[in-house]
Fold:
Amino acid sequence: MSNSLYFAYGSNLDRRRFSRRCPGATVVGRARLPDHRLAFTRYSSKQKGGVADIVPEPDAVVWGALYEVDEACLAALDGHEGVPQAYRRGTVRVIDDEGVEREAVAYIANRTGAFTPGREYLALIVRGAREHGLPEEYVRAIEQVETHA
Structure:
């Protein structure tokens, strides 16, 4: 079985959460997805609010972490992400810290609207962003997203 790169940009940035889902995954480093923005386009009854998505938008950027994962990890993530009802696997072209463009798997929401994320869910994203050393300006922008209890 071959390994793939996985681009985490939402709650899977949180290392504790991700290591429970994919214990054999290896952190490769930071990456950015150009011409996309972070949005909350799907309601999750489990999270009681909006969940993260990557939406095409010129001149915007989504930062995240690259993990090396195997097929068993992707299968586990498919279950956690609710494939194919809630999310679908897609391929994105990200740029790593060395400026190299890399192809990675990302989960893209089956959009149902615009929703406010819950405070705890957003906190997972912020904590993971800090753990991976994402740019401070980007982390502060996430912290400014309106939430609800």
Summary: The radius of gyration is 14 Å. The first strand starts at residue 4 and ends at 8. The domain at 4-143 is CATH 3.10.490.10 (Hypothetical upf0131 protein ytfp).
